[in-house]
């Protein structure tokens, strides 16, 4: 059975990739919210102040710096969704693992990026220790299996913040504001169907962001709105750590690569 919904999370496409191609997705327990950011930033709430251009510039600068170094990213939404990745944008390589848990089902998808090539290991698709090569041009916006070539980070924080017009500084190392997700479909794994399901609530989504003691982005939390069916979404929480880490990633040997079957693209709407 195929589904576009992961219970406990409205990160529909990122999670549905794993479930859809394996045919085992079911409804599940929404679980409890994640632990929250560790940056000292407050929980997301609707912004009540006016925009602060200086705050927006400072946060934007910290976010843009992700493209200048390597780092570890951990993205969660409740207990059923976790994506971890080692990103090295300057050298065009990254590794990642997406873990999705639903009712009576758990699946892990490994991802490898070398320049503009995307390789994955998906249970039921990839055999043994080989890698499946994905034609990125055949993936619709918002559909990926964790990481995607051309993304500085899986949450695409820089593009997300571009949809905010009211960034404010809370203290020297934390910021808040609201996002208009209708202008950001295809970002952070939120496909157009998911965003449309939020209705008007998708235009005013609270977020907080925190910096570390060196002024680098350390955390982002987005309080996603309830879905069209009224089910409350878990917060999307992203942590940025291990700046300067070595990313050991290399292209698999030709004999260990197979091309993705058409069914993979079909299950993703491509």
Give the integer mean of the pLDDT values: 79
The shape, in one word, is globular
Poorly predicted regions: 1-42
Major pleated sheet: 12 strands, mixed
What does this entry show, briefly?
With 270 residues, this protein is an alpha+beta fold. 15% of the residues lie in helices and 28% in strands.
Task: Describe the secondary structure blueprint for this structure.
Elements: H1 12-22, H2 53-64, E1 70-76, E2 81-88, E3 93-102, E4 105-114, E5 117-121, E6 131-134, H3 157-161, E7 168-171, E8 174-179, H4 192-198, E9 205-211, E10 217-222, E11 236-241, E12 257-259, H5 262-267
Parallel strand pairs: 6-12
Antiparallel strand pairs: 1-2, 1-11, 2-3, 3-4, 4-5, 5-6, 7-8, 8-9, 9-10, 10-11
Structural description of this entry:
There is one protein chain. This protein has 270 residues and is an alpha+beta fold. The chain has a single domain (12-267), classed as Clam (outer membrane lipoprotein receptor (LolB), chain A), CATH 2.50.20.20. It is built from five helices and twelve strands. It has helices at residues 12-22, 53-64, 157-161, 192-198, 262-267; strands spanning 70-76, 81-88, 93-102, 105-114, 117-121, 131-134, 168-171, 174-179, 205-211, 217-222, 236-241, 257-259. A hairpin with a 5-residue loop joins strand 9 and strand 10.
Characteristic terms for this protein:
single chain, 5 helices, alpha+beta, 270 residues, outer membrane lipoprotein receptor (LolB), chain A, 15% helix, 12-stranded mixed β-sheet
């Amino acid at each position: 059975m195929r589904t576009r919904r992961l219970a406990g999370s409205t990160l529909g496409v990122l999670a549905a990739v794993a479930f859809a191609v394996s045919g085992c997705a079911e409804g599940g327990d929404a679980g409890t919210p994640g632990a929250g950011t560790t940056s000292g930033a407050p929980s997301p709430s609707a912004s009540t102040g006016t925009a602060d251009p200086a705050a927006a510039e400072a946060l934007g600068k910290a976010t843009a710096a992700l493209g200048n170094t390597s780092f570890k990213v951990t993205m969660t939404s409740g207990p059923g969704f976790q994506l971890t990745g080692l990103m090295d944008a300057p050298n065009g390589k990254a590794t990642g693992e997406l873990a999705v848990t639903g009712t009576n089902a758990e699946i892990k998808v490994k991802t490898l990026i070398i320049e503009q090539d995307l390789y994955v290991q998906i249970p039921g698709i990839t055999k043994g220790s080989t890698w499946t090569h994905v034609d990125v041009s055949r993936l619709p916006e918002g559909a990926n299996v964790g990481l995607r070539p051309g993304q500085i980070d899986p949450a695409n924080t820089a593009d997300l913040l571009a949809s905010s017009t009211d960034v404010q500084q809370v203290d020297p190392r934390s910021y808040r504001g609201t996002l208009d997700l209708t202008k950001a479909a295809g970002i952070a794994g939120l496909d157009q169907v998911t965003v449309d399901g939020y209705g008007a609530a998708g235009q005013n989504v609270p977020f907080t962001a925190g910096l570390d003691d060196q002024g680098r982005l350390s955390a982002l939390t987005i309080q996603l709105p309830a879905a069209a069916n009224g089910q409350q979404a878990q917060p999307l929480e992203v942590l940025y750590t291990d700046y300067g880490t070595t990313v050991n990633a290399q292209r698999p040997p030709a004999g260990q690569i197979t091309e993705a079957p058409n069914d993979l693209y079909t299950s993703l709407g491509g």
